[in-house]
Amino acid sequence: MLKKKTRMSEQLPEERVKNFNEVSLGYTEEEALLEASRCLQCKKPRCVEGCPVEIDIPAFIAKIRDKDYSAAISVIKEKNNLPAICGRVCPQETQCEQVCVLAKRQDPVGIGRLERFASDWEMKHGVQFPRIHTEDKRPRVAVIGSGPAGLTAAGDLAKAGYDVTIFEAFHTPGGVLVYGIPEFRLPKDIVSAEVEYIKRLGVRIATNTVVGKTLTLDELRDEGFKAFFVATGAGLPMFMRIPGENLAGVYSANEFLTRVNLMKAYLFPDYDTPVKIGKRVAVVGGGNVAMDSARTALRLGAEESIIVYRRSEQEMPARQEEVEHAKEEGVKFMLLTNPVEVMGDDKLRVAGLRCIRMELGEPDASGRRRPIPIPGSEFGMQVDSYVVAIGQTPNPLVPRTTPGLEVQSWGGIAAKDDSGLTSIDDVWAGGDIVTGAATVISAMGAGKKSAQAIDEYLKGKKP
Q1: Element at 308 (helix H, strand E)
Q2: Taking residues 272-297, what's their average pLDDT?
Q3: Phi, psi for residue 11 in degrees, rounded to 5
Q4: What is the DSSP annotation of 391-444?
Q5: In this prediction, what percent of the chain has a pLDDT beyond 90?
Q6: What predicted TM-score, i.e. pTM, was given to this entire model?
Q7: What confidence score (pLDDT) does residue 1 get?
């Protein structure tokens, strides 16, 4: 048996940095069969326990090994409505693959890569749609937000026969999948195909509808909706609150990536959404969003793109794969460094950063070592664009317009238990609006749990 995970082909770094095409190219059939042969088919598979949506991983891998790809994707879709997305952007290395038995002595099975292979095979050969039984009229359910949590909950509720409508603020459904993750990591035609699958299950999607402005939950309740799932994510940017953050050339990562991804700035001038990017760009932060921003800047023509991060590489929350891809493409890393001021020129445009060196102390609440400024270590660096990628906060519109909906101290909706039940008995919430910014698959797991709870609640309400 091969001890190493079967390698997945990628665009060469010197080529991909000049385009927005997908970096990772996926497995060929031969590569997928080779990787599937590594699975031990454990009787008590820990990988299933490590999957937030509890896919029967050994079963779908066995189907791939048998060359029954149609059955493989059917097994996956029993639990996962968005497999082509998960196979690309979910951190399998810290979830299902981390607890793979093989991981004790060699590389774990490439579960995510095999999931992508099965879903890509289906897209090439025709998407399968389950039969939905809606003979008896069942209650209407409103899902607020069309990101991974909302799409998952809507799909599961539709499969259960409910009349589901998703309300989406943007003109295109997908949430963070379309506005936050770049084309080179997650092609938008993949997202569109997965959204189309949800719609084919019977889900309606009302775009350009800002719940909390266009409509409130109370107004939707008056229209006949019997249960609600709030999945509005964490889309508001955070800033460092240092001098100079109002200068021209300062972007929040949210604005920067939304312009490039959702508004198609990377196709300018075919799309009328220009993004002015300088020759030397600094991105503060160490997560996937920071990596996405730094790599995007290079593709937009920056000569130099620099990650500025206050801890060491070991503490970076970004996926290791994304860090490696960034390095391969030429992104530079300035570690144990924190900006203290954005400096401007006489036209109030970004001209540089003033930073301070950091050292690591004892672990903080996150479990990572706390960064501590080193007195007298301040220095300046020249940049002409600055992207802030230090996290996001929830949009307050739904909580502010929903009397009795309790929130957490940081603004997220408060959930009573794992089902996402809120302080209002017909309202559930899940994903980033409850946990803060997290992973796509964890949001999907929350959507599944809330869908199940909503189903049980509505069945109990039937006369």
Answers
A1: strand 304-308
A2: 93
A3: -60, 145
A4: -EE---HHHHTSTT--B-TTSPBP-SSTT-B-SSTTEEE-THHHH-S--HHHHH
A5: 86
A6: 0.93
A7: 62
